[in-house]
Specification:
The complex is a heterodimer of chains A (550) and B (175). Chain A has 24 helices and four strands. By secondary structure, chain A is mostly helical. In chain B, strand 6 and strand 7 form a beta hairpin. By secondary structure, chain B is an alpha+beta fold. Chain B has one helix and ten strands. Classes of the chains: A mainly alpha (550), B alpha+beta (175).
């Protein structure tokens, strides 16, 4: 039993070399027979280039599976490590940037190819009896492809993914009757956090791939059972899939692969600063293929919002599944399917108009702050880091944001030029050749400066540059005394004690002073230890806590 | 004659198509294969310089016996940077220079100990409890199964402080 198809294969010499093991394999598994069954399947004589997209979509899915598995070799799926490990992949791992590029752009290309495949099937009326189930399996595959995009969007854990997913999870919460249950299912019942991240990762890497493989198997089985749809009035004898159609499929796959490879090599995949839940000015945007939905929602206000967010997408999905049952006519000649052509043109036109409007309305700097943004919205570490920056005279060589040129680089945008490990090494070692007269920083200072350097934007730098010295000192005391281990400030910190935002609206300064001296006396049952501050330190930390917005 | 010519043309056409399928398929498989191999098998691109750690005070050195020291060093492990404890065996050589050995046996990585009564002349040796390898105070193999000397840290002295740098793997040929 020859493994390679036909006597005309250029690898036919392999037949004799591989004959024994392949015969052994064939006798036990029938694998070669199955493969030959696929390759020498009878297809209509009219099949040609329009029928290549299904194979391209399958190839792209396999590429996504390969690159996804390889990314998982270096990716750490927790909010604490995800961003760092992805930065490591992109900046340090050999071919890591390429691998992420293949996975990211492969996802976009897969959406395009699956959509084109469905449009081709729709225009050719290939969903008609007896192929209704094949169409519906294809519709499920389209939804699964979009679900992959949606769940994968959170995994880089940068600001873009955090705030984009925030919108997605809120939309899920709007589903009538079951919204809260669905929120709990995706781990967003209590906001976006570690549970949400784990659920999205589980969906993206365990559940969706399994469902996808199963649905592809059903889809391919149905295609094989009913055969490729012949063009109307095609009475010519059928022919084999191999080699003519296999050649067309391979050429189409090759073109898609070359496009993907060049995109991965030439176009940078977006990676913004690490997810910052305290960034109150971020304007989130979904992935480009969801922009139309994002824009459409802007036209539904108040009570009508669920119609735009839930009603229309649900109606679209129902319509997709209903297509074979609504259109029962026998017309399969594309030129005679004016309604089908009209629906496709209307759909593409609407999609393009909404997407273009959304792109036109996208702010140029996504992570920028505004004049309304107060420096008090930063984490204690970032506020304290500005104090360290001043105490250590970093300003001799560096600017936080804009300013007169100095010997060292501007700290804004440093995260794109230096890795986190480089920054830590820079902060924790004294190198007389580079930094005359500078000592190594203690680890807490280095951590705070590292946190600041990896998040700084031109706008936030301008705000932090004007930070009052006493508040910086208060934040430094907050950090050095480990207050963040139990308390949350601006979304950052522990949850053992109460959050401290708005504490000045709940308690007077005198109450805070007495609380530091004897927490259990002021808050019965409190496990907080007493703190003895100097007058100046006490004034600084009370000033800092009093400045925190509610 | 005509049929034969048609048959030859068909064979030639099928050969061309098959060559296209295998050729393009090989390019795709090769490109993905090479990218995957680079990603999995080649180490990270960045090579780091020596990171010196302030490890010990010179007073820990005792005449004639190696001293086991514990010190803190910054470890860059993939995307993680941590300040972790490390151990080394520090010994003052006859000429006054210092040697710092990695605390792991070069056979299979067990932690060895200094035994003052071990060694061929009963004047002390590093002995591994796992498979019995032993090393002299200069790190050379006395008994196997270890087949190369103990690995060493770069070491320097600044005043009374001893600094340890990168770990240098000792090649087998020095054994």
């Amino acid at each position: 039993m020859a493994w390679f198809p036909g006597k005309d294969s250029p690898l036919k010499c392999m037949n004799s070399i591989a004959k024994k093991p392949l015969t052994w394999m064939e006798q036990r598994t029938g694998l070669a027979t199955h493969i030959r069954g696929f390759l020498f399947e009878e297809i209509p004589a009219s099949a040609g280039w329009p029928q290549v997209f299904g194979s391209v979509a399958l190839f792209l899915f396999l590429t996504q599976a390969l690159t996804g598995i390889l990314l998982a070799f270096n990716y750490s799926p927790t909010p604490g490590d995800a961003y760092g490990s992805l930065t490591y992949i992109v900046r340090e791992v050999s071919a890591g940037k390429m691998m992420r590029g293949l996975h990211h752009w492969g996802a976009s290309l897969m959406v395009v190819v699956v959509a084109v495949h469905m449009i081709q099937v729709f225009l050719y009326g290939a969903y008609k009896k007896p192929r209704e189930a094949t169409w519906m399996a294809g519709a499920v595959l389209l939804l699964l492809t979009l679900a992959f995009g949606l769940t994968g969007y959170l995994l880089p854990w940068d600001n873009r993914s955090y705030w984009g997913t925030m919108v997605t999870t809120r939309l899920v919460g709007q589903v009538p009757l079951v919204g809260s249950y669905l929120s709990n299912l995706i781990g967003a019942g209590n906001g976006i956090g570690v549970v949400t991240f784990s659920r999205f990762y589980a969906f993206h890497t365990v559940i969706l791939p399994a469902v996808m493989v199963g649905t592809i198997a059903i889809h391919v089985y149905l295609v094989k059972r009913h055969g490729v749809t012949p063009r109307a009035a095609d009475s010519r004898p059928t022919r084999k899939f191999y080699p003519s159609q296999a050649y067309r499929d391979t050429v189409a796959i090759f073109i898609a692969f070359v496009a993907l490879f060049f995109m991965a090599a030439m176009v940078d995949v977006p990676l913004e600063g690490i997810a910052n839940p305290t960034d109150a000015t971020y304007v989130p945007r979904p992935e480009w293929y969801f922009l139309f939905l994002f824009q459409a929602l802007k036209y539904f206000h108040g009570a009508l919002e669920p119609i735009g967010s839930i009603g229309l997408p649900t109606a679209a999905v129902i319509a997709l599944f209903a297509v074979p049952f609504v259109d029962r006519g026998s017309a399969r000649v594309v030129s005679r399917r004016a309604v089908a052509i009209g629906i496709v043109l209307l759909g593409i036109g609407t999609w393009c108009a909404l997407t273009a409007t959304a792109i036109a309305g996208t702010p140029k700097t996504r992570s920028g702050g505004t004049a309304e943004q107060k420096w008090t919205q930063f984490s204690p570490e970032e506020v304290a880091a500005v104090g360290y920056f001043r105490n250590e005279n970093c300003g001799r060589c560096h600017n936080l944001g804009a300013g007169e040129p100095k010997p060292g680089p501007n700290l804004t945008g440093l995260q794109r030029r230096r890795t986190a490990e480089w920054l830590m090494q820079h902060f924790t070692t004294a190198d007389p050749k580079r930094q005359a007269g500078r000592e190594a920083f203690p680890i807490a200072e280095a951590n705070a400066l590292g946190a600041l350097s990896t998040k700084l934007t031109p706008d936030s730098a301008a705000i932090l540059d004007n930070e009052p010295a006493e508040l910086a000192k208060g934040a430094q005391i907050y950090i050095s005394d480990g207050c963040g281990g139990c308390h949350k400030v601006n979304g950052s910190g522990g949850e053992i004690g109460p959050p401290l935002n708005g504490v000045s609206e709940r308690h007077s300064e005198d109450w805070m002073r007495r609380h530091f001296a004897s927490p259990s006396a002021m808050s019965p049952g409190s496990i907080m230890p007493p703190y003895q501050f100097s007058k100046a330190d006490e004034a600084a930390i009370i000033s800092y806590l009093s400045s925190l917005p509610d | 004659m005509q049929e034969r010519r048609d048959g030859q043309q068909e064979t030639s056409r099928r050969g061309f198509l098959a060559a296209g399928i295998y050729g393009l398929g090989s390019i795709i498989a090769g490109s993905l294969g090479i990218t995957s191999a680079l990603y999995l098998l080649r180490g990270p691109r960045k090579k780091r310089g020596t990171e010196w750690a302030d490890a010990a005070d010179a007073s820990v050195l005792r005449a004639g016996a190696p001293a086991k020291i514990t010190f803190n060093r910054t470890r860059v492990d993939g995307w993680k940077i941590s300040n972790q404890k490390d151990t080394a065996w520090l010994i003052r050589n006859v000429d006054g220079s210092l040697t710092a050995f990695s605390p792991l046996c070069t056979h299979l990585g067990c932690a060895y100990q200094w035994r003052a009564e071990a060694g061929p002349s009963k004047n002390g040796a590093f002995v591994c409890p796992c498979h019995g390898s032993s090393f002299s105070r200069t790190g050379q193999v006395i008994t196997g199964p270890a087949n190369r000397p103990l690995d060493r840290y770069e070491v320097k002295r600044e005043g009374e402080r001893i600094w340890l740098g990168s770990l240098v793997k000792t090649p087998r040929s020095n054994a």
